[in-house]
Amino acid sequence: MNLCVIPARGGSKRIPRKNIKPFCGKPMIAWSIEAAKASGCFDRIIVSTDDEEIAEVAKSFGAEVPFMRPAHLSDDHTATIPVIAHAIRWQMEHSDSPIEVCCVYATATFVQSKDIKRGLEILKSTDAEYAFSVTTYAFPIQRAIRITKEQRVEMFQPGHFNTRSQDLEEAWHDAGQFYWGRASAWLEGKPIFISDAAPVTLPRCRVQDIDTPEDWQRAEWLFKAMLKS
């Protein structure tokens, strides 16, 4: 079976109640649940949360919340892999064992069902342990600068000061939307950013981190523009 796990703890600090805060007319988590359902990839869509209100919202949009996440997996320092592994173990103890498991972030409002489906196809057609969404940096990382404590600037890679942007290798980063993985990889705690992971490429216009109120406002502008296009 294929399992979707949407982690959604209740203790968001920078944007309080972020996972269920209304985003373009729906609780933020609803967009992830609906994309997962529309993909047709999953036998079961589980939301892993420690929060009763999030659980009720998730169930109202068609996800299952068959357990409440334990406190030791719900603090600010808990990584994603142990949360997904916990859900997999619960599933194995109570029903069919999953083969492929996808973590979809509750804050991935730009996630699209076609990309989730493409991720599964990439995972199945390769020997990869994981397949996850990535996108390109908007500016060459080799020409990045830092601001020093003296309020001056210096390059991270001074040797590229005179290198033309078009001659620099393109760099990619995690798009923060979804992570397909074989159940065994999640359970073994294998890191996601390894040579056994395959990229699922996305255009930059469909990727937006939402960590601050400014991010939120920009994301809603972009999202509304996408809906009109």
Judging by the overall fold, what is the CATH architecture? Alpha-Beta Complex
Poorly predicted regions are none
- State the helix count: 6
Give helix and strand order, one letter per element, not per position. EEEHEHHEHEEEEHEH
Look up the CATH topology.
Spore Coat Polysaccharide Biosynthesis Protein SpsA, Chain A
Description:
The chain has a single domain, classed as Spore Coat Polysaccharide Biosynthesis Protein SpsA, Chain A. Strands 4-1-5-9-6-10 form a six-stranded mixed beta sheet, sandwiched between helices. 31% of the residues lie in helices and 21% in strands. It contains six helices and ten strands. Helix 1 packs across helix 4 (113-125). The chain has helices at residues 28-39, 52-60, 80-94, 113-125, 183-187, 213-228, and strands at residues 2-7, 22-23, 26-27, 44-48, 100-104, 130-136, 145-147, 153-155, 172-182, 197-201. The chain starts with a strand and ends with a helix. The model has no long low-confidence stretch (mean pLDDT 96). The protein is of the alpha/beta class. The longest helix has 16 residues, at 213-228. The radius of gyration is 19 Å and the shape is globular. A hairpin with a 5-residue loop joins strand 7 and strand 8 (153-155).
Break the fold down into its secondary structure elements and pairings.
Layout: E1 2-7, E2 22-23, E3 26-27, H1 28-39, E4 44-48, H2 52-60, H3 80-94, E5 100-104, H4 113-125, E6 130-136, E7 145-147, E8 153-155, E9 172-182, H5 183-187, E10 197-201, H6 213-228
Parallel strand pairs: 1-4, 1-5, 6-10
Antiparallel strand pairs: 2-3, 5-9, 6-9, 7-8
Helix pairs in contact: 1-4
